[in-house]
Write a structure and sequence with these properties.
heterotrimer; B: 605 residues; alpha+beta; four-stranded antiparallel beta sheet; 18 helices; 29% helix; globular; C: 307 residues; 13 helices; 0% strand; elongated
């Protein structure tokens, strides 16, 4: 992706056809909301048919060595609706989704909505925390770097961001596990090497909360470092763009403190393109972080969907992709609405 | 404020509670409902929660009394009578009687029931199951069945499960709800866990009829990669790790406080050939395009002499495993047929060449072998599973050995789901896969019958003589004669070679022997400690602090002994250093930030 | 070079004039790029890896990749015989690393070609055409962006199967959206420019405009974006191989890391198996990123102004 921020990545829904001053905010909101609902419905349809091309079937993959007779295979398929034709399954899918029922997982024999809810909390903890931290730290680093361009801080910050950007996050995770979880030479391995919490600790107790936090330090650090590189580079880039503008010279000449000039004017304007990227990534929170979940054994949504691919467990795939798409669409909607409120020119 | 250090390396067991923590790798639990799940860890969960009518000997998994104290058959083999022991109670106090057994089995027998998907094959031929009184269960069959009394069906409480309708059963979680443990009669009670979760917590059942366990709790934690799980054991977050590889076992064997081993598992890996792919089990239409060479049993058998199995074990399995012979693993001493020396396939390329020549596959002028009719063999299509390194490496070696014989081949890789599709279409000449074999070999033997083609038969092997023997042994209640028939079947397969069994694999395990001892392997000796048939070790293991003798286990050897403790240096020291460092960095960083905030353009210029 | 410089005024054809102007601008670009320290550093690193990849057969015997011929110690530490130690099959890690560079670079570059072609086309179409064509292509682009990328790649890999060509297709087909968006916004802003309107007024057809005016002005951005896309493609290949989706018959840095991970490299202490492939990936991706960033600054007139 480009490291030079381009405004309005997904924020622009339509092409600017006329240079009008924009319609009212109200109608803008309506258009955007309808568009989002449309996208969501489109997702629903496409995701259903998309997964039908996956190879294999559940009875063979799961039941190898257990479903011994043809009668047993037939009973299994009948119980989980796999004996119906695809159009039939589609109708059932539409009907039940309209009622909020995401269907039954053929691997776990549990409602998909329950599986998603079970995995949602670890995912939010892991990815949500990382996104918040990386946004705050990344934006700050970008601002500082751009402001003091060429300084030692900027040099170190930019080169570290570039290096982190070039690093696969799971490899970083493995290094952190090896260095801080297992330990080497004189460095003690003080952090746990995997899992969301210690097996014998009740996660809802105070001890459990601290224990979970302790287990999350390395995974969250991994994801935070991975994400903040991108944010800091984009922020720095768009702020450097902004800093050349004339109106800022005026502000400085007036004797305003640097901090004020920076925060109240330049950053505000430079923040808008970064927000688009941030919104997109917040939306991706609910799709989980597959590689980090694998490396640190965190039971999140990312792993749920990847493991469903091998079966293939259609209901789980449909459900997780729906949730993931809904998250991104919702986040984008919010970003569009904020953008449209702040900058009326966008409301074409 | 509680220090998270309490959750670190220091043994997290309280003074009173003995907790056994297991780090599990690989597949997770797919369902806590014993009528639904397929995966091995699920069986472990049921084994702790419920009881079984018939148990398994630790020596060779042959049938032993469990809930049933004794059983007998009528002379015609059509009636089986089990005597259920009395005095067993479910965890909610309700007594377990023969009625619960009958209820459980009848749910399996219900027509097209989802309960049958898992267990119906163990009740083949059973017409009715009744409980004439509280301690007697009677099975009436319409034909004798030799697999009985193999009945790995967990006995569930009727008073709870009668409220689960057939339509509810397919998604009934059977998990703890509202803080109440799952109701069962087994040695432990599941108090926390759900199918897709990563943590399962069991409490000991002090009133267990087989004697209260010596430990208070068992907790399973599932990990996604070997390193995390093993490090958890080394650090003390877990006491046992199941499913590691031979290299890791070797590394752990040098670790103090830990005992690690490669245990023989009752499974085998094989190179399977396309012995004649057809579109249905009747064999009416040939499909796919198998190479004519692999359709010939003589060709396949000759290749058995081109496999250097000891080298495969050393290089591909890292020494953990045994060279393969027949499809009934040697663990099952009662049923395994060991090929006599003059019949055994050993690595002998010249003999392989001779056999191929004798069968008509002579080398042409270009050094490549031809079919008996003179046409070139062409390139054999070998398939390996991309999700298994042993699969790939085995086929790479096979290709080399085939090349040494003058036969060209090509290895393609597929995921397991894709390979299944390929097999069903018959578009292969050979592939590599493996099976687990149950204590009764009947189901494994059935996979090579004609009727299983396009079902569980992946080699499409069809031999009427073999089928005849299979049908005979299936209803043969005379054990000695049945064993004879089973051995004959293995001999037929060995000769026809639809499978070339390459290895009997091993499973790597490690236990904190400085914390727990008295674990015994199954089969004994040489088997594994957990995920056995039965839950012997959970009941009989003792904490290292309990220095009394291990429970009597006549005829069993090699119980894990207490070992010297691991390096128990407290981890809170380094932890405090770490926290301290972070605090210092934060303070210094914050201070710098604060001081910088105040500059204006003038200050900076 | 200006025509008025020449003492004898030679009549240059339009084509020759264009070519001379192009060459001059390339030279200017190169000079500007050369002054970019980080860009040159990236280029240098890149050259080293390309040379290693091309010279692989000379540097390391290809027989060293064969599992059946390997007879080194299993997970042996670096020694005088095996400079970077051995893997779990007894093969030299250094050999794997050298040959792995071929696959990693090849997959990265090929996938980028696919991604750039699709992305540029989709970007141009959705940016240039205002009607339903533009809208549909934009919707498709948007849809691909909304779907979580890695599960989609994994699903696609499951359908296609594992293999070198397949993984190239998977990466190419799932990574074009961000390029398309970039090209689209470039196209949109170019479309607004006066000379395009004038060309339309004169009567130039749609495709003529796209080909002659829009495309050449978009190309610099495309070029800069390509290097950044290669970086992303190499990262993706490494990740997909790590997740077990790479070509199992070939070694890439990603499959090396996957093997290390499966075999428990951390527990067995085999740092030589885990660190070098990762470091190589970081260096190559960093190199492409530096070059791409420098190119962007050089080619984007907006950015050049701020130097």
């Amino acid at each position: 992706m480009s490291l030079v921020a381009e405004p309005g990545l997904v924020a622009e829904g339509e092409q600017p056809e006329a240079r009008s001053r924009g319609r009212s905010y109200g109608s803008y909101v309506v258009v955007k909301v309808l568009g989002s609902i449309g996208s969501l419905l489109f997702m629903l349809l496409v995701n259903f048919f998309l997964f039908r091309v996956l190879p294999g079937n559940a009875a063979q993959t799961l039941g190898r060595g257990r479903l011994n007779t043809p009668a047993q295979v037939a009973a299994f398929n009948k119980a989980y609706g796999l004996d119906k034709s695809v159009p039939q399954q589609f109708l059932i899918f539409l009907k039940s989704t309209a009622h909020g029922d995401l269907g039954l997982s053929v691997k776990y024999r549990l409602p998909v909505s329950q599986l998603i809810m079970d995995r949602l909390w670890p995912t939010l903890l892991l990815v949500g925390l990382s996104t918040i931290l990386s946004t705050l730290i990344g934006v700050y680093l970008g601002i500082r770097g751009a402001w003091s361009r060429g300084s030692v801080f900027d040099k170190i910050s930019t080169s570290s961001s570039l290096t982190l950007y070039a690093m696969p996050e799971w490899w970083l995770g493995l290094m952190l596990i090896a260095g801080l979880g297992v330990g080497f030479a004189f460095v003690p391995g003080i952090f746990p090497t995997g899992g969301l919490h210690s097996p014998d600790v009740n996660p809802s107790s105070l001890h459990g909360v601290l224990d979970t936090t302790w287990h999350l330090v390395l995974p969250v650090a991994t994801l935070t470092l991975a994400y903040l590189a991108e944010y800091s580079l984009i922020m720095r880039s768009s702020l450097l763009d902004e800093l050349g503008e004339d109106y800022l010279q005026t502000a400085r000449a007036k004797g305003l403190r640097d901090v004020v000039v920076r925060n109240r004017h330049a950053v505000r304007n430079a923040l808008l393109p970064t927000t688009t990227v941030i919104a997109l990534n917040i939306g991706f929170v609910v799709s989980g972080a597959i590689t980090v979940e694998t490396v640190f054994s965190i039971p999140g949504l990312g792993l749920l969907s990847t493991e469903a691919i091998g079966v293939p467990d259609f209901a789980v795939l449909q459900g997780t992709f729906l949730v993931a798409s809904a998250g991104v669409i919702a986040a984008n909607l919010v970003a569009n609405l904020i953008y449209g409120w702040l900058d009326p020119r966008v409301r074409t | 404020m509680l220090l998270p250090g309490l959750a670190l390396g220091a043994p997290a067991q309280g003074k009173d509670k003995v907790v056994f923590k297991v780090a599990m790798l690989g597949e997770g639990v797919d369902s806590l409902n014993p009528f639904l799940g397929f995966q091995a860890p699920s069986y472990e969960m049921w084994g702790l929660t419920y009881d079984y009518l018939v148990g398994y000997s630790m020596k060779d998994m042959s049938p032993e009394p469990d809930l049933a104290t004794k059983w007998s058959t009528s002379p015609d083999g059509l009636t089986w009578t089990f005597t259920v022991r009395s005095g067993v109670k479910f965890s909610d106090g309700v007594p377990l009687t023969a009625k619960d057994v009958a209820f459980t089995f009848n749910r399996v027998l219900a027509k097209d029931s989802v309960e049958g998907t898992n267990w119906l094959s163990y009740l083949t031929g059973v017409k009715s199951v009744t409980a004439p009184d509280a301690t007697t269960v009677v099975l009436k069959l319409d034909k004798p069945v030799a697999t009985l009394p193999l009945l790995p069906i967990p006995i569930v409480p009727e008073h709870i499960w009668k409220n689960v309708s057939e339509s509810q059963m397919k998604s009934y979680p059977a998990a703890p709800t509202g803080g109440k443990p799952v109701v069962g009669s087994g040695p432990f009670r599941l108090v926390q866990g759900s199918a897709d979760g990563s943590t399962f917590k069991f409490e000991a059942n002090p009133d267990y009829w087989g004697g209260a366990p010596h430990i208070d709790e068992v907790i399973f934690q599932f990990y996604k990669n070997d390193d995390s799980a093993i490090q958890a054991v080394i650090k003390g977050e877990a006491d046992f790790v199941e499913g590691i590889n031979a290299l890791e076992v070797k590394k752990l064997q040098s670790q103090p406080g830990i005992t690690a081993q490669n245990g023989n598992s009752p499974g085998f890996d094989e190179i399977a050939f396309n012995a004649g792919s057809t579109s249905d089990s009747k064999g009416t239409k040939k499909i796919g395009n198998p190479n004519p060479a692999v359709l010939d049993p003589k060709f396949r058998h000759a290749l058995g002499y081109a496999l250097n199995l000891p080298q495969l074990i050393t290089k591909v399995y890292q020494g953990a495993g045994l060279p393969g012979t027949t499809i009934v693993p040697p663990n099952y001493t009662a049923y395994h047929w060991e090929p006599p020396a003059d019949q055994k396939m050993t690595f002998d390329l010249s003999k392989a060449g001779q056999l191929l020549d004798a069968a008509g596959y002579k080398k042409g002028s270009d050094g490549k072998r031809t079919l008996p009719d003179g046409k070139p063999i062409g390139t054999l299509r070998l398939a390996a599973r991309s999700d298994s390194p042993t699969s790939l490496n085995t086929m790479d070696y096979f290709k080399t050995w085939l090349g040494d014989l003058g036969i060209d081949s090509q290895v393609s890789t597929y995921s397991s789901s894709q390979l299944t599709n390929v097999i069903y279409k018959g578009n292969f000449d050979a592939f590599q896969w493996g099976w687990y074999v149950e204590p009764d070999p009947d189901s494994m033997l059935s996979y090579l019958t004609c009727a299983q083609r396009q079902h569980s038969s992946d080699s499409f092997y069809c031999n009427p003589a073999y089928d005849k023997l299979y049908n005979e042994q299936h209803v043969n209640t005379d054990h000695a004669s049945r064993v004879n028939q089973i051995k004959q079947m293995q001999e037929i397969l060995y000769r026809d070679s639809p499978y070339l069994v390459t290895a009997y694999s091993a499973i790597g395990e490690a236990v904190r022997s400085d914390r727990f001892h008295c674990l015994v392997t199954q089969p004994n000796p040489g088997g594994i400690w957990l995920e056995q048939y039965g839950v012997y070790n959970y009941i009989h293991m003792k904490p290292a602090s309990d220095t009394s003798a291990c429970d009597a286990a006549p005829g069993l050897t090699g119980a894990v002994k207490t070992s010297a403790p691991a390096d128990s240096s407290s981890k809170t020291g380094p932890f405090l250093i770490g926290v301290g460092a972070l605090v210092v960095v934060a303070l210094v960083g914050g201070g710098i930030v604060m001081m910088r905030r105040r500059t204006t353009v003038e200050d900076r210029e | 070079m200006s025509v008025s410089d020449a003492p004898s005024v030679r009549r240059l054809s339009t084509r020759q004039l264009t070519r001379q102007r192009r060459l001059a601008s390339y030279r200017r670009t190169w000079r500007a790029f050369r002054s970019h320290r980080s860009g040159m550093l990236g280029l240098g690193i890149l050259l080293v890896f390309v040379v290693v990849a091309l010279a692989a057969p000379i540097l390391a015997d290809s027989k060293g990749l064969d599992v059946t011929l390997a007879n080194g110690p299993v997970l042996g530490a670096p020694s005088s015989h095996y400079w970077l130690g051995t893997d779990d099959n007894g093969r030299s890690v250094l050999t794997l690393l050298i040959w792995g560079s071929r696959v990693s670079l090849f997959v990265g570059l090929s996938a980028t070609v696919i991604s750039m072609v699709i992305g540029t086309l989709m970007g141009l179409i959705s940016g240039y055409f205002a009607g339903w064509i533009g809208r549909i292509t934009f919707r498709i682009t948007e849809w691909m962006l909304v779907i979580p990328f890695l599960p989609l790649a994994i699903a696609l890999a499951a359908v296609l199967g594992r293999g070198l060509v397949n993984i190239i297709i998977v990466i190419g087909v799932t990574s074009w959206p961000s390029t398309a968006l970039l090209i689209r916004s470039q196209t949109l802003s170019i479309k607004e420019r006066a000379y395009v309107e004038r060309a339309e007024a004169i009567g130039g057809g749609r495709w003529h405009q796209m080909g002659r005016h829009v495309l050449p002005n978009v190309m610099p951005m495309v070029f800069a974006n390509t290097t950044l896309t290669v970086a992303a493609a190499i990262l993706t290949e490494t990740t997909l191989s790590f997740l077990g989706l790479g070509d199992p018959t070939r070694t890439s840095w990603g499959t090396m890391l996957d093997s290390a991970y499966q075999v428990g490299a951390i527990t067995t202490g085999s740092w030589w198996f885990v660190i070098p492939p990762g470091v190589c990936v970081v260096l190559v991706v960093l190199a492409f990123t530096l070059v791409g960033q420098a190119l962007e600054e050089v080619l984007n007139p907006r950015l050049r102004a701020r130097q």
